[in-house]
Design goal:
Layout (H helix, E strand, L loop, with lengths): L2 H26 L15 E7 L10 E10 L4 E10 L3 E11 L3 E10 L6 E8 L2 E9 L8 E7 L18 E5 L17 E5 L8 H12 L3 E5 L4 H5 L8 E11 L14 E11 L4 E6 L2 E9 L2 E6 L14 H9 L15 H9 L9 H26 L5 H24 L3 E11 L5 E12 L3 E8 L2 E5 L9 E7 L3 E9 L3 E12 L3 E10 L2 E10 L5 E8 L2 E8 L4 E8 L6 E2 L16 H6 L10 H14 L9 E7 L5 E3 L5 E13 L2 E3 L12 E5 L11 E5 L2 E9 L12 E5 L10 E6 L4 E4 L6 E4 L13 E7 L5 E6 L1
Parallel strand pairs: 4-21, 8-9, 8-10, 10-11, 11-16, 17-32, 24-33, 29-34
Antiparallel strand pairs: 1-2, 2-5, 3-4, 3-6, 6-7, 12-13, 14-15, 15-16, 17-18, 18-23, 19-22, 19-31, 20-23, 21-22, 24-25, 25-28, 26-27, 26-30, 30-32, 34-36, 35-42, 36-41, 37-40, 37-42, 38-39, 38-41
Helix pairs in contact: 5-9, 6-7
Length: 797
């Protein structure tokens, strides 16, 4: 009875083994699925370059150049740059149309908030992502110095990396024509640009405008002449401090030895570009009546012109090049802090949140509503039901009253909050009378009364990024689409009663203000005198004049009006901190007084005036908590309009706008005397990086053990021939004894610190003073405390 079972079992086992062998054989054979689709290669080939010569800075705009090659059919889409710092994802995009078999290059601008390690670049069509690549980035530190080199021989300028320029040791970025952006924000990471022996005539109009705006906002531009001067200046002639007319060949350059007295003599044929300096330009070195080095302020920046080409003999191997560059560029530009854009995001969020008319309801309205609700729900309900002898209906009347008052609260909320969206439009507009473009730093807040999607459209050639996440915008994923006509934030979702914020930067045609202001040296001291003409259509309110350490209220300034200015400078014994000098202590008479001058002594934070609070927060967001206005002269006024044209793509809205216009005034120097005594108020000071401790000031400081180096620079260019006397003021709150400090001044003829025999508190007349006053009236002071105990310093200037 068991044999058939065993036989069947053997047959089953044999079949299983054969089927397993069959599966193994089939697994080793190539498979083919007739209906499977093979992945097609992308028709778009994409390459990208982030930053300038690969450099970028955190908290700055970075240009992203993307080259697209289309080998397929016509394709429309957009290039996207995705920045993800771990908390937020921001997509900056630009629409691109790619015909069949075409190649295009586009430049986008992405804001690097935080410290992202990479950015993702994609080409996206209606069908999805067509091509994508990831670029690793390593940004320089925020306080780093970066010099851009657009020159045929960039290696000759490597010497700059061995120097301390503008307070730090710089890196150099080699540039080409395509690196120059059409937005000045794309150059903001650069502290200096050198142009030599290249054809600047190839710059587009937008590139020239961006370069001009960058200089005006604090950039430093150096243009070299020499044999190729004509092509070098062809596109930047309007920025130069000289009007060039020809060239000449000389066989020696003894005039440059003024910049480096201990250097070897310069002999050999050299081609010099020749011309006449513009009005207000400073001639820093001259050779046989030919200006060799000329400098001129342009807005907050400055432009240098070299008549020679440092890349050619005999200059390329000259031993004095290092000293010359150090002498010219050691000092930072005196740029007010607000010129750098918004730096305090908490204050920026506060400014955007303070929408006029959207504050809390009146306390009387709230108390009245709650009182009426309590009265109706309690005593009135009871009395009415008792009168009707139907008190058992309370279980109906109470819910009805609750519903009615809830509806009333909703209606009251709509009445207070409104039913229309509100755009809170804020702008700081920096105007320079000699510059055609004004720099705009804007904040745009969108308030939504109900949950909704918005397309926020910003007309004009601006760039924008979300307001960094401090309870307002910037959180989550954002998309920003940009072209030269407008910037769009599409599909911005805002909850009921919510606000989202956007930061805007760019240029706008400058309103026409013409100034004729003089700084006069007279028997009564220093006087600012003259007038400013308003040739614009703007009416400025609450206008004030901001001078070093002082201010003057001037009232309203309407179109076509001339505003007379007359102010005697009384605080002439105090030098102003450079606008780049931040972080010094908040005590003493040298502290910046901008907020007190603009807003008075009122405690703005406790004020019920929302417009006042948003103005204060907007300016605080730009100046930070340790910023200064430097030693400049400014006319400041407010308007109820904005240069930012913002709409909500067809949706109705209310526009609440306010702007602060800051007009820089460049006074001319007037005096009938042949000898001028320049008080400390004519100088701006900053700290040199080789100091032991950077948290100090020449006024009201504690000097601990270590080295303290201070640089003083004239706030206004003053031409002079000789230095007759130099007085060092070193005081300690009335102490007249010995100070136990080691004092030295920088000797510009020997390029070294030279100790001076100043051992007592008080005023000290420096012997042989001319050697301690450098090009353009710069002075460097060194104070060393060799003791382990701190020393009080009241004044050192």
């Amino acid at each position: 009875m068991t044999l058939p079972l065993i036989k069947n079992y053997h047959h089953l086992l044999l079949r299983s083994m054969l089927f397993g062998v069959f599966l193994l054989v089939m697994a080793g054979l190539p498979t083919h699925t007739p209906n499977a689709q093979t992945e097609q290669p992308s028709p778009i080939q994409m390459t990208s370059l982030v930053g300038l010569d690969g450099y970028c800075l955190s908290e700055q705009w970075v240009p992203v150049r993307v080259t697209l090659e289309n080998t397929g059919t016509d394709l429309d889409g957009q290039v996207e740059v995705q920045v993800n710092n771990g908390l937020n994802q921001w997509n900056f995009a630009q629409a691109v149309s790619l015909p069949s078999v075409s190649r295009k290059e586009v430049t986008l601008y992405a804001y690097l908030y935080g410290s992202p390690n990479n950015i993702q670049i994609s080409f996206v069509s209606d069908e999805g992502v067509v091509a994508t690549t990831t670029q690793n980035i390593a940004c320089l530190q925020t306080n780093s110095q970066l010099v851009g080199l657009w020159t045929s021989t960039p290696s000759i300028y490597n010497i700059l990396t061995t120097l301390i320029i503008s307070g730090a040791r710089p890196s150099t970025a080699v540039l080409e024509i395509a690196d120059f952006p059409t937005h000045p924000e794309g150059l903001d990471m650069l502290q200096m640009i050198i142009i030599s022996d290249v054809d600047t005539g190839t710059l587009s109009d937008l590139q020239r405008q961006a370069l001009s705006s960058w200089v005006a906002n604090g950039g430093r531009l150096l243009v070299a002449g020499g044999a190729g001067w004509q092509k070098t200046v062809s596109g930047v002639a309007d920025l130069l401090p000289v009007v060039l007319s020809g060239s000449v060949t000389v066989n020696e350059l003894g005039g440059l030895l003024e910049m480096a007295p201990q250097a070897d003599p310069l002999t050999g044929d050299t081609v010099l570009a020749t011309g006449a300096p513009r009005e207000g330009a400073e001639i820093l070195a001259v050779q046989e009546d030919i200006p060799l080095i000329v400098r001129q302020k342009f807005g907050f920046g400055e432009v240098f012109f070299f008549a020679f080409d440092p890349a050619l003999a005999p200059l390329r191997n000259w031993t004095g090049l290092e000293v010359m560059y150090q002498t010219l560029f050691v000092a930072q530009r005196d740029v007010p802090t607000w010129a750098n854009g918004y730096v305090e995001w908490t204050e920026a969020s506060s400014a955007v949140s303070n929408v006029p008319g959207l504050g809390l309801p009146s306390i009387f309205l709230i108390c009245g509503f709650l009182g009426l609700y309590t009265l109706a729900l309690g005593p009135l309900n009871y009395l009415v039901l008792r009168k009707l002898k139907r008190r058992e209906l309370a279980w109906i009347t109470i819910p009805v009253l609750v519903v009615l008052f809830s509806c009333g609260a909703f209606v009251l909320g709509l009445f207070v909050r409104g039913t229309r969206s509100v755009i809170n439009n804020l702008a700081i507009v920096q105007v320079w009378p000699e510059v055609s473009q004004a720099r705009v730093h804007g904040l745009v807040g969108v308030f939504s009364p109900n949950r909704n999607l918005y397309n926020v459209e910003l007309n004009g050639n601006f760039v924008a990024h979300p307001l960094v996440n401090f309870g307002l915008g910037g959180s989550g994923e954002w998309g920003i689409l940009h072209n030269e006509e407008k910037t769009v934030v599409p599909d911005l979702r805002i909850d009921a009663g919510g606000i989202e914020g956007v930061v805007v930067e760019g240029d706008t045609p400058a309103p026409a203000f013409v100034s004729d202001v003089h700084l006069e040296f007279g028997a009564s001291g220093l006087t600012i005198d003259g007038e400013v003409q308003n040739n614009s259509e703007l009416t400025l309110h609450d206008v004030i004049l901001l001078a070093p350490g002082q201010a003057q209220e001037l009232g309203e300034f309407g179109p076509g009006k001339a505003l007379a200015i007359s102010l005697v400078l009384s605080n002439t014994g105090i030098a102003s901190p450079n606008g780049n000098t931040t972080g010094y202590p908040y005590y003493g008479y040298y502290a910046d007084t901008t907020f007190q001058d603009v807003f008075g002594t009122t405690n703005v934070n406790s004020s019920f005036d929302q417009d006042l609070r948003r103005r204060y927060s907007m300016l605080q967001a730009a100046m930070g908590y340790g910023g200064t206005r430097g030693s400049g002269l400014y006319l400041l006024g407010w308007t109820d309009s904005s240069p930012l044209n913002v709409t909500l793509d067809g949706k109705g809205f209310k526009n609440e706008a306010t702007s602060i216009y800051i007009i820089a005034l460049n006074p001319t120097i007037e005096s009938t005397a042949s000898v001028l005594t320049l008080p400390p108020a004519m100088f701006a000071w900053d700290r040199l990086e080789n100091s032991t401790n950077l948290d100090f000031s020449p006024y009201n400081s504690y000097l601990y053990e270590g080295e303290y180096n201070i640089h003083y620079k004239l706030s206004q260019p003053i031409p002079y021939q000789t230095v007759k006397a130099l007085t060092l003021h070193l005081t300690d709150y009335g102490n007249t004894g010995q100070h136990n400090l080691n004092i030295a001044l920088w000797d510009f003829t020997r390029n070294e610190w030279t100790p001076i025999d100043c051992t007592m508190w008080g005023d000290f007349e420096v012997p042989d003073p001319a050697r301690f006053v450098g090009t353009g009236g710069t002075i460097q002071l060194q104070i060393i405390n060799p003791n382990q105990i701190s020393i009080d310093l009241e004044r050192a200037d």
